[in-house]
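Q&A log
Question type: sequence-to-structure
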Amino acid sequence: MTIAILRTLFRRDLGGLRREIEAYADDESLWKPVPGVPNLGGTLALHLAGNLQHFFGAVLGKDGYVRDRDAEFARRNVSRAELLRGVDAAQASIDKTLATMDDLDLQMPYPELIAKRKVNTGVFLFHLAVHLGYHMGQLDYHRRAATRDERGIDAVSVRELPEVV
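Response status: OK
Response body:
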């Protein structure tokens, strides 16, 4: 059941991340500095895609993904199309990895130290979901300020949660 919950939340939120990126007026606005906002929209998209591909695909799925965290924060002027490919790759990595796991795997220690500490896999994967939501809020704020478009896009929508029948 817990694996299914993680799958549902990551699919919903990566769909929201995709909509946020698509809602920018153009590629340039993703990289427009906004006073008081430390991360640009494009930087956040690169970071989230790299983060998820690393912790799901490389560490748990052993898929060979090699993360360049410094580049996630240093690259600029990456197109929306490339950012969306990163979101799709993160989703594929999560889907493939979760398909190999069961709820018992979530009770095991995560196979890599996190902040020099051994943590529970399930707790860490839920942390990654919260981390995604945190940065999506930042991305939404950046988009609204950079484009002067105050409309929300319901990126983290309760309407996308499965209904109980």
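Response note: Residues 2-151 form a domain with the Four Helix Bundle (Hemerythrin (Met), subunit A) fold (CATH 1.20.120.450).
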